[in-house]
Design a protein that fits this description.
By secondary structure, the protein is α+β, with helices and mostly antiparallel strands. The protein contains five helices and eight strands. The strands form two sheets. It has a five-stranded antiparallel beta sheet with strand order 1-2-3-4-5, with helices on both faces. The protein has a three-stranded antiparallel beta sheet with strand order 6-8-7. Strand 3 and strand 4 (75-82) form a beta hairpin. Helix 1 packs across helix 3. The radius of gyration is 15 Å and the shape is globular.
Length: 177
């Protein structure tokens, strides 16, 4: 079982007991505003997301982690790696992404978890390059990408919904750890 510990967080695979907490996060419009088309996910949609993430772990050897606070054991959100196949420009890339409950914003958890995930991608999984696909206007995620050492590469349009996206990237030669 893949697990990463940071000073404040445990990144791990998903438990059945995570479903309700993640479903609560998925019903917060402030969180979901920046995810896909902004639609809220119910319990079934959340279960499907976890199932997709777990399948990606099995198929690719990486995926989206459950992010748990070490101090309390509380589920803070989801951070991990995925293939952004929905976007023609990145369908053969691996992206890092993050989604935390709004009560955990502004405390550095997203940056801490994303940094550990980026290190996992480049050092443990041997990836040469990682991207982040960020919806234009999501300044908090842009700041996380900057903290990771990622550079804005280009802007593209979401192929289905038409809103603008930024592609940030970093490769192994640029990574500072």
């Amino acid at each position: 079982m893949t697990e990463i510990r940071t000073p404040r967080l445990r990144l791990r695979r998903w438990y059945d007991s995570d479903l309700a907490a993640l479903a609560d996060l998925h019903t917060d419009p402030r969180v979901m505003r920046w995810v896909d088309d902004g639609a809220l996910l119910d319990l079934d949609g959340t279960a499907e997301a976890i199932e997709r993430w777990e399948e990606e772990w099995d198929d690719e050897g990486f995926g989206v982690f459950a992010v748990e606070l070490l101090a309390s054991g509380e589920l803070a959100g989801a951070v991990g790696l995925f293939v952004p196949a929905f976007l023609p420009e990145t369908r053969h890339e691996v992206a890092v992404g993050w989604r935390l409950g709004s009560q955990f914003w502004g405390q550095g958890y997203a940056s801490e978890a994303a940094q550990a995930t980026l290190e996992f991608a480049l050092q443990d999984r041997g990836l040469e390059r990682v991207v982040a696909v960020i919806r234009v206007g999501d300044t908090a995620s842009e700041n996380v990408a900057r903290k990771l050492g990622m550079a804005l590469e280009r802007e593209v349009q979401h192929p289905e919904h038409g809103y603008p996206l930024q592609i940030h990237s970093i490769d192994l030669t640029e990574y500072q750890g």
